[in-house]
Specification:
By secondary structure, the chain is mainly beta. The chain folds into two domains: 30 residues, no CATH class; 90 residues, MmpS1-5, C-terminal soluble domain (Immunoglobulin-like, Sandwich).
């Protein structure tokens, strides 16, 4: 018996999908499964306080006041999805420093530094 398995990777504007079809069983139709990845944002350093703006799991822009360290992560990112985080040192007279990072599936995509009020560090990329 010959088994034919066809695997096609389809890239759509909304993400990446695996389509697997098997000719060995008429009861096993092809399936469509999204391939997800993990995005991790972090802000750390010696600054007293920051204002953070970042793209969340639904690509909405979220703004928050934060003390350090600040972390945000989601595990449903798909190909082409925007990733961005910005942090501004927002305490007058604060000479502290910050580092902003974006990780894609655990690998560093970008790391940006800023020091002293009112400076900002912004990192961005595409999944």
């Amino acid at each position: 018996m010959i088994r034919i398995v066809i695997a096609i990777v389809v890239v759509l504007a909304t993400g990446v999908f695996n389509v697997a079809c098997s000719g060995s069983s008429p009861a096993a139709p092809g399936t469509l499964r999204p391939i997800y990845g993990t995005v991790s944002y972090s802000v750390f350093g010696t600054a007293k306080h920051v204002t953070v703006a970042y793209r969340d799991a639904s690509s909405a822009l979220v703004r928050a006041d934060a003390t350090l360290p600040f972390f945000y992560q989601w595990s449903t990112a798909t190909a082409g999805e925007p990733m961005s985080i910005s942090a501004q040192i927002d305490s007058a007279g604060d000479a502290g420093a910050i580092t902003v990072t974006i990780l894609k599936n655990g690998a560093m995509i970008q790391e940006v530094h800023a020091a002293g009020y009112p400076n900002t560090a912004t990192a961005s990329g595409t999944f």
